[in-house]
């Protein structure tokens, strides 16, 4: 923790967040601090509250209690569009593109109230070269992976400081997921901090610099991928004492005690070409 | 040749119906609000025109831009207050609120302007002059001008929707309100702009109607709203040019009906309306039924 806090104040500071969906208590006092330049991963099973947490940070849910600070300023009561223009931009679960708009129009909407920064539509076309010739197409006919890329592009053109990624891998083939996560170094290189929700634990451990595991609205584990053992993750993911734990996690090609570093030598980034590697 | 003349007259009337209908279609397409006060707002615009001309003695045609701006501002304010509050309470509430608004407007107009009908005289021969093609076809310059105006308004709306930032945002918000918020768009403001446009277009229609026929406090729901609904349904919901097609189909059906028997003018219009509902409920221009 000391190396994180040494880098200054957290960019995003969530304290004791309690969120209800009607009668149901979705989050019971979650705290997290995201420091500039981090890739902070929220992991956990279905219904653990990860997406609720992310949506609350984006302003789409109102917390019952607790606070959200961004860049030292309390944003708990701020409307979602104000948070977006302040630099907290979310790629929502299920992509949520505008189906009657073309690819380019989707990106233009994303940049309607953009902050000043390195990202614009041209730069997104550099990141995803296939988009350029298909800019006039409606996104409804595109594949899931392509739609996810458009959703990421739509968020990037707003020039976020914190990018919230909700279940990028949902419904996509593993090879496509690899390709989409392969864009992460270039996003980080442009100075964006990432907070992501991921059901696929091995995927999350591969990219994260810090992680938190949620279970039924509670924090069950927090640390860097280097700090936590595979057994700890299993226990945190399924709840302590679960006998059949680890089935999902066992697919991970990486032992959790050998922390992944985002550099060219790491085999986990093997999908990338040399030029697109970052950090 | 009589029939050709009927079809041409109906077609020209269709332009006015399209002006009535496009705002209704826009508000439903973007906010999912069925504005039952839409017809009455056209009447209000006509009466504001009457009032402005009486007070300031501006030429009748000059009153159009003034009334359009006033109604657009009113549209934004009404959307941001009453209709916005209704939207947050569910779709049925918007129906009740706009129905109530309709009643208030009609009775307010009767209170201030009496139930007598009055016209918006253009004051020169423009409204009555016409030209003839052959021996049977007579086209009034004024009706032709309204049709051209309708096409220009629809064209302008289309260009606005496809080529401007707020046009794009209106379409984006209509698609997915929450996703638009995540892109930094305040959908309430975007709704307000859409309402301003809808009110502006219905203001043009109301004044044109006041010039062609006469205004009375109840025509808003008695005729204008019904014709607007029929045009939207015949043409297809959410389609801009569909409202023009729907308006033309309605206008032509009415003209032909009136030619057969003067009593059949409204009947023929509603018969076509029902026929479209039965045979092609998604409207003439929509590709498929929408869920």
What are its keywords?
heterodimer, A: 279 residues, alpha/beta, 6-stranded mixed sheet, 4-stranded antiparallel sheet, 10 helices, 10 strands, 28% helix, 22% strand, disordered C terminus, B: 291 residues, mainly alpha, ABC transporter involved in vitamin B12 uptake, BtuC, two-stranded antiparallel sheet, 11 helices, 2 strands, globular
State mean pLDDT of chain A (0 to 100 scale). Answer: 86
Number of helical segments with 4 or more residues of chain A: 10
Question: Helix and strand succession of chain A?
Answer: HEEEHEEHEHHHEHHEHEEH
Write down the secondary-structure element order of chain B: HHHHEEHHHHHHH
Mean pLDDT over the residues of chain B: 92
CATH-defined fold name of chain B? ABC transporter involved in vitamin B12 uptake, BtuC
Biggest interface, residues from each chain: A-B, 28 and 18 residues
Kindly name the structural category of chain A. Answer: alpha/beta
Largest sheet of chain B: 2 strands, antiparallel
Strand-residue fraction of chain A? 15-25%
Number of helices of chain B: 11
User: What Rg of chain A is obtained from the alpha carbons, in whole angstroms?
Assistant: 18 Å
Shape call of chain B: globular
- Cα distance, first to last residue of chain B? 44 Å
Spans of chain A with pLDDT under 50 lasting ≥5 residues? 242-279
Span between termini of chain A: 21 Å
* Poorly predicted runs of 5 or more residues of chain B: none
């Amino acid at each position: 923790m000391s190396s994180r806090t040494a880098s200054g104040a957290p960019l995003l500071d969530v304290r004791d967040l309690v969120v209800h969906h009607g009668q149901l208590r979705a989050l019971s006092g979650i705290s997290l601090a995201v420091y500039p330049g981090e890739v902070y991963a929220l992991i956990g099973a279905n219904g653990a509250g990860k997406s609720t947490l992310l949506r609350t940070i984006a302003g789409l849910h109102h917390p019952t209690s607790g606070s959200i600070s961004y860049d030292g300023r309390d944003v708990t009561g701020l409307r979602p569009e104000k948070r977006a223009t302040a630099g907290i931009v979310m790629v929502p679960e299920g992509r949520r593109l505008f189906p009657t708009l073309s690819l380019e129009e989707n990106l233009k909407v994303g940049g309607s109230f953009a902050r000043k920064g390195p990202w614009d539509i041209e730069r997104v076309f550099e990141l995803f070269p296939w988009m350029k010739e298909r800019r006039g197409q409606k996104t409804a006919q595109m594949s899931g992976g392509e739609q996810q890329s458009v959703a990421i592009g739509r968020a990037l053109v707003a020039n976020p400081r914190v990018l919230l990624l909700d279940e990028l891998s949902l419904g996509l083939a593993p090879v496509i997921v690899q390709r989409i996560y392969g864009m992460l170094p270039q996003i980080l290189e442009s100075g964006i901090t990432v907070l992501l929700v991921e059901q696929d634990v091995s995927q999350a451990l591969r990219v994260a610099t810090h992680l938190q595991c949620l279970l039924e609205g509670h924090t069950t584990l927090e640390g860097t991928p280097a700090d936590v053992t595979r057994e700890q993750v299993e226990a945190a993911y399924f709840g302590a004492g679960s006998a059949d734990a680890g089935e999902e996690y066992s697919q991970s090609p990486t032992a959790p005690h050998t922390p992944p570093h985002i550099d060219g030598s790491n085999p986990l980034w093997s999908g990338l070409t040399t030029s697109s590697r970052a950090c | 040749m009589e029939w050709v003349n009927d079809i041409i007259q109906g077609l020209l009337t269709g332009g006015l119906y399209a002006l009535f209908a496009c705002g209704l279609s826009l508000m439903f397409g973007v906010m999912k609000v069925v504005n039952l006060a839409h017809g009455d707002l056209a009447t209000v615009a006509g009466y504001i025109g009457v009032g402005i001309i009486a007070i300031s003695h501006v030429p009748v045609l000059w009153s159009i831009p003034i009334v359009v701006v006033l109604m657009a501002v009113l549209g934004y304010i009404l959307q941001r207050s009453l209709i916005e509050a209704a939207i947050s309470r569910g779709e049925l509430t918007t129906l009740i609120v706009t129905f109530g608004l309709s009643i208030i407007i009609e009775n307010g107009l009767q209170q201030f302007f009496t139930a007598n009908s009055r016209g918006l005289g253009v004051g020169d021969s423009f409204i009555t002059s016409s030209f003839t093609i052959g021996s049977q076809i007579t086209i009034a310059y004024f009706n032709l001008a309204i049709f051209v105006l309708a096409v220009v308004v629809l064209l302008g709306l289309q260009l606005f929707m496809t080529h401007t930032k707020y046009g794009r945002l209106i379409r984006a918000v209509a698609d997915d309100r929450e996703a638009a918020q995540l892109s930094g768009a305040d959908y309430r403001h975007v709704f307000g702009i859409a309402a301003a446009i809808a009110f502006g277009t219905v203001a043009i229609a109301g004044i044109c109607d006041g010039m062609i026929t006469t205004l009375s406090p109840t025509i808003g729901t008695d005729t204008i709203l019904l014709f607007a609904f029929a045009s939207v349904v015949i043409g297809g919901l959410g389609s801009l040019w569909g409202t023009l097609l729907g308006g033309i189909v309605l206008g032509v059906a009415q003209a032909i009906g009136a030619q057969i028997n003067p009593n059949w003018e409204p009947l023929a219009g509603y018969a076509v309306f029902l026929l479209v509902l039965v045979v092609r409920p998604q409207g003439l221009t929509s590709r498929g039924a929408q869920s």
